[in-house]
Design brief:
This protein is α/β, with parallel strands linked by helices. Helices cover 29% and strands 25% of the residues. The protein has a 5-stranded parallel β-sheet with strand order 3-2-1-7-18, covered by helices on one side. Strands 9-16-10-11-12 form a 5-stranded parallel β-sheet, with helices on one face. The structure holds flavin-adenine dinucleotide.
Length: 448
């Protein structure tokens, strides 16, 4: 008699659910992915996809000729192709897809509610909670897709507003301000007293706000916005202290809440924690050992964290011995034109930590000059032993540069080793190589 395959059920078809499903299938499990939307859909189909569409279309069409409809078409095209690709990946891996909304009936049984069909039960030896998080909007500022937008309703925009209030910061706030100001809209950005912050590296905040100010964005820090009123085709944002700001439209981004509260987790023997999720160990395993959690459902940071956590959880669940997720080695990124990315330490003032910041326009880089994107910087941090411990990049291919820095941190490489690396010519990687050479030459004798 053959060995029984482990039955796995994954709730959610976002990046975390896809990763958990594909990894467990690769290790011989019989996997069902339950999703109430299309597998493979990313939340970033909002601002991030719009910025990428603009970056790819504007060199040909010119930004002034781009309408929301044209951008939407490009975004929808990307989404349809990514749906086909996700479905193909799941089919090739032998993962069954069940459309519907899952919730727990017990620790081993999920009930899936389906449109116009009877609910069905799915029994599983292992269950992955990967049902993401939803944006949070106070009652007094709900997006309507006509005057008040969020990343979920950008697709409803038919005309670019001449003036926009962006409420909230974080990566999505930065992307929204970038998007509207690139189109030439007058942007008033309402953030809290110590904002705007992307919550990754303060040097990113300083650089991006410098760019946005040059585009005449008004950055207005102050008390929280408590309501948005609509009247006569205008919107008015009202702060806690009663001050007001008026524009043609508003864009709201005020954080996320995990969707775990929709899963009836008590039936599985789990309890909700203060964050609105369930506690887990560093491998994503909950108090019920056969139930794992990953992605925004566990902690809303970024897609890259979701995927890393899901892979670790999947490997642990199938009996491998993965290393626990180390956020210091995860490259976080957002935005487009300019790209921004960061990994590891950012605090150059910490004891025993050294740093160097190099600006694109003062260093040799053929690719940057060819592409006309010479604005940006690279910051590298290393410790007393000469090991790379952090990096931040803004500008041309910042995401790729920082992914390489993440590998250096992960493999505990020193400047002495790293400066031996060679970047293709012309490429943005040469920028990293030149920076490493400069640090090495200046500090010869420091590195291991
Ligand atoms: C505008 C925007 C831009 C972003 N840009 C970046 C970026 O540049 N880089 C980056 O790393 N991250 C980015 N992120 C973050 C990233 O998109 C999320 O971290 C990531 O999507 C989380 O993945 P997830 O699989 O955990 O959750 P989700 O992507 O939310 O997927 C969860 C899925 O589960 C489904 N679901 C929910 N409940 C149920 C249920 N009961 N039954 C069945 N299915 C269910 C949902 O419909 C959804 O499809 C961005 C996010 C936004 C909003």
């Amino acid at each position: 008699m053959g060995v029984q395959k482990k039955k796995v059920a994954v709730i959610g078809g976002g990046p975390a659910g896809m990763e958990a499903a594909l990894t467990t299938a690769r290790y011989g499990c019989e996997v069902t992915l339950i999703t109430d939307s299309h597998p493979g859909d990313w939340k970033m189909a909002g601002t991030a996809a719009w910025l990428q569409a603009i970056a790819s279309l504007s060199p040909y069409a010119g930004i002034e000729s781009l309408s929301p409809r044209r951008i939407n078409e490009a975004v929808q095209d990307v989404i349809s192709r990514s749906r086909v690709s996700a479905a193909e990946q799941l089919r090739a891996a032998g993962v069954a897809v069940q459309h519907g909304r899952a919730c727990f009936q017990s620790a081993q049984i999920l009930t899936v509610a389906q449109e116009q069909r009877e609910p069905m039960d799915i029994h599983a030896d292992l269950i992955f909670i990967a049902n993401g998080a939803r944006p949070h909007f106070p009652e007094a500022m709900k997006p309507d897709g006509r005057q008040i937008y969020s990343y979920t309703t950008l697709t409803d925009m038919e005309r670019l507003p001449a003036s926009v209030i962006v409420v909230g910061d974080g990566p999505i706030g930065y992307e929204a301000v970038n998007l509207f100001s690139r189109f030439g809209a007058q942007v008033d950005w309402l953030v809290e007293a110590n904002g705007p912050r992307c919550f990754f590296d303060p040097d990113i905040d300083a650089w991006l706000t410098g760019i946005y100010r040059r585009r005449k964005v008004n950055i207005r820090s102050g008390e929280r916005v408590k309501a948005i009123h609509k009247q006569d085709g205008r919107v008015t944002a009202i702060r806690e202290d009663g001050t007001e700001q008026e524009a043609e439209a508003a864009f709201i981004t005020l954080g996320f809440r995990p969707n775990v509260d929709q899963l009836n987790i008590e039936a599985a023997g789990l309890t909700m924690n203060g964050y609105g999720s369930v506690d887990c160990n560093p491998f994503g395993q909950t108090a019920i050992p056969s139930i794992y959690i990953a992605g925004d459902a566990q902690r809303t940071i970024a897609g890259v964290y979701s995927i890393t956590m899901a892979r670790t959880a999947a490997l642990h669940a199938v009996g491998r011995s993965p290393e626990p997720v180390d956020v210091r080695t995860i490259p976080f990124a957002f935005n487009d034109a300019p790209e921004v990315a960061t990994v590891g330490m950012t605090d150059a003032d910490a004891t025993g930590i050294h740093s160097r910041v190099v600006h694109y326009n003062t260093e040799r880089n053929g690719k940057a000059f060819l592409q006309g994107e010479t604005e940006g910087f690279l910051k590298l941090l290393w410790n007393d032993e000469g090991r790379i411990v952090g990096g931040t990049a803004v500008g041309l291919q910042a995401k790729d540069i920082i992914s390489t820095v993440a590998m250096m941190i992960r493999f505990k490489l020193g400047i002495g080793d790293c400066q031996l690396l060679i970047g293709a010519h012309p490429s943005a990687s040469e920028f990293l190589v030149h920076t490493l050479h400069a640090i090495h030459d200046q500090h010869a004798g420091v590195q291991s």
